[in-house]
Amino acid sequence: MKTLTTTALALIAALGVAGPGLAEIRLGASLSATGPASFLGDPEAKTLEMMVEARNAAGGIDGEPVELVLYDDGGDPNKALTFATRLVEDDEVVAIIGGSTTGTTMSILSVAEDNEIPFVSLAGAVSIIDPVRPFVFKTPHTDRMACEKIFTDMAARGIEKIGMISGTDGFGASMQAQCKDVVGQFGIEIVADETYGPKDADMTPQLTKIRGTEGVQAVLNPGFGQGPAIVTRNYHQLGIDLPFYQSHGVASDAFIELAGADAAEGLRLPGTALLIAGQLAEDDPQRAVVQAYKAEFEAAYGMEVSTFGGYAHDAFALVIDAISRAGGTDPAAIRDALEATSGLVGTTGTYSFSADDHLGLDLSAFRLLEIRDGGWVPVD
C-alpha cells in the first residue's frame, strides 16, 4: 500500500486551498520499514519523512515543494519490484531512493535502468555499482571496502590466519565473496570458512569448528540482521579469546543491545562518523553535518540515530542537490547532475561521483570502531 508522508498530505491539502501555482517534485522510495530488515528500513523511512518536511518548510527546491511517495516492501524483492514499477509508471517520480537490502535493491535497479530513472541505493553490496550502471548510485560503503578496512587492521595487528563465519543472505554472501577475493593482498589466509542461514538460532557448532582449527588468530563475521548478534552471543558463551570482527551491516547501537554489551565488548567493525558524532574533532569535515542530523532525528523521534538512517540522509541530500543543479525535473538531467557531484559532505563520507565511480567514497570515509563499555570508540 502506498503511503504519503504527513508532510505530503498536508502539502496536498494546502495546495488545494491555495490553488494552482506550485508544481510538486515527486521522489519515490521503496524501503523495508517492516519485516526482518526493519532495523534498516524504519530509520531510513523516518529520515526521508523528516528531511522532506524540513525541505518544504525551507521553501522546497527553488520554491517547488517535494512530495515523497513511500512504499514499504518489507524486505521482499518481489514487492520491491512491484513498487518500483508503480513508482515509475503510476506515480511518475523523477528519482528513487531505497533498496534497504541488496535483494530489494537489485529488483529496483532493474526498473530504474530500464526506465532511465535515477536511483540511489541504500544497500551495501559492491555489485550494485560495479559494473557502473548509468542510472544507479549508492550511499553506503561497499562490502569490498569493509573487507579491505578490516584486513588492514588485522595485518597491522600481525594476524595472518583467520576463521570466517558468514550469513547466506544477499549481503553476507556478497561480503564473504569479496573478502575471499581481496584477503591475499594483505598476507592473510582464511583457514576456516563456515556459514549460517537467516533463520538459524544457534551458531555454536560452526564457531566450535572454527575454534578447533589450527592456527586461527581472529574471526570475521560478514552478515547483517539478527544473525551476527547470535554469533556474537555464541562467541562469548564459548569463551573464544580471539579478536572478533563484524561488518558495517550491523553498525548501530541496536546491534549492541541485541548482542549484549558484555558479549560485544572489544568487537571491531568499520562504521561511519555518525556512531562517534560526539567524539569527532572540531576540524573534522563531517562534524557539522553528522551532529546536525543526529540532533534533528533524535529530537523528532525520541530514538537513537543509526548508520542506516544516515544512508537515507545522504541519498536525499544527493538527489536534492542534483535536482537543484539540473535546473528541473528531467530524470536524465538529474542523472547527469548526480554523476557530476563533487565534495558533497554527508554522514557517511564526502561524495564525489564520476562516470567511472557511482559510490564516490574512498576507504578513508570508513572509521574503524571498537565496542567498549557498551559504546563506540574510534580505533584509528
Give your account of this protein's structure.
Keywords: Amino-acid transport, Signal, Transport. It comes from Rhodovulum kholense. Residues 24-360 form the Leucine-binding protein domain. Belongs to the leucine-binding protein family. This protein has 2 domains: 2-141 and 288-364, 3-Layer(aba) Sandwich (Rossmann fold); 144-271, Rossmann fold (3-Layer(aba) Sandwich). 42% of the residues lie in helices and 18% in strands. The protein contains 13 helices and 15 strands. It has helices at 6-18, 38-57, 77-89, 102-115, 143-156, 170-182, 204-211, 227-237, 253-259, 261-264, 287-301, 307-326, 331-339; strands spanning 2-4, 25-31, 66-72, 95-98, 119-121, 136-138, 161-167, 189-196, 218-221, 244-246, 268-271, 344-345, 350-351, 367-372, 375-378. The chain has a 6-stranded mixed beta sheet, sandwiched between helices. Helix 3 (77-89) packs parallel to helix 4 (102-115). The longest helix is centred in the N-terminal third of the chain and has 20 residues, at 38-57.
Question: Characteristics of this structure?
Answer:
13 helices, Rossmann fold, four-stranded parallel β-sheet, 18% strand, alpha/beta, globular, 380 residues, single chain
